Amino acid sequence: MRSFESLKENELLALAIWQEEEDSRIYNEFASQLKETYPATAAVFQGMCAEEEDHCKRLTELYHQKFGEHIPLLRRQDVRGFTRRRPVWLTKTLGMKTVRRQAETMEAENARFYTRAAARAADPAVKALLTQLATEEQKHEQLAEQLEEKQLTPTARHQEDEAGRKLFLLQVVQPGLAGLMDGSVSTLAPLFAAAFATHLTGETFKVGLAASVGAGISMGFAEALSDDGKLTGRGQPLARGVVCGLMTTAGGIGHTLPYLIPTFRTATTVAGIVVVIELAVISWIRNRYMDTPLMSAAFQVGVGGALVFLAGILIGNA
């Protein structure tokens, strides 16, 4: 990698051109990915893209005037001191605040670059343009705020908040809730069947652990392979599968861990209490995020959990 101090004047301009081109494409990618769900925010990034394209044009024209047609390929990753840009595909999973903070970081870094580059430039025209761009980059945060004020009206912001809530439900809450319910309920039968069949806490723990991990792997693959998210808007299959699988395992592990207690009666009592807490949490989540009446959610989850719990005890005592 090159050091910043080793760059010649034409290389400083070349680096500035390539980074402005990259930033404009990043902002354009942000806008493209966000336009369907967050149209007002997409318009903000489209405006910032236009600003970066203008910078690139001015830098390129000056370069051709001073150094000819050929512009050497010199990018951020070729020079020490630059921070790495997040891959743009991450914006599909990042929240709006994170994306906007990334844009602020980009502009702040560009402003510092132009300030340092202008200090090293000897040609008056090059120094003047770099100094001007440093000032403009420092004002870009204000530009973003102005664009937000223009594009993100209260109505648009409310619509985007609602869209974000729906995406959160589809991509996180639903797969996580499905996994938690499956893990909390489906593992009850094998766990308590093993407990009442053997009265051995260590063996029961192994059965519960195996059931929890197995259910997590099964549910994770099932969720990831259910659809690619393109038509349903449910997001990346891998992310949904991971969320669902982890929550399934967590749901089963919760009432399995008490069987690390060596006393069977104590372990079973604690496990029963944990089951009640798990079912209460599931009922609250369904009420909070899925708009299911709390009593209805508690009844549905409670009945299902109780039936599986009794099935495990009956099979274990048979």
Q: What is the compact description of this entry?
A:
With 318 residues, the protein is mostly helical. The chain has ten helices and no strands.
Low-confidence stretches: none
Number of helices, counting only DSSP H or I runs of 4 residues or more: 10
User: Which geometry do the CA atoms define?
Assistant: elongated
Mean pLDDT: 79
- Element-level helix/strand string: HHHHHHHHHH
Indicate how many domains the architecture comprises: 2
Class of secondary structure makeup? mainly alpha
If you had to describe this structure to a student in words, what would you say it looks like?
The structure is a single chain. With 318 residues, the protein is an all-alpha fold. The chain folds into 2 domains: 4-152, Ferritin, core subunit, four-helix bundle (Ferritin, Up-down Bundle); 159-317, no CATH class. It contains 10 helices and no strands. Helix 5 (154-186) packs antiparallel against helix 9 (264-289). The longest helix has 33 residues, at 154-186. It is elongated and about 90 Å long. The mean pLDDT is 79.
Describe the secondary-structure layout.
Elements: H1 9-34, H2 39-67, H3 96-120, H4 124-151, H5 154-186, H6 188-198, H7 201-224, H8 237-254, H9 264-289, H10 294-317
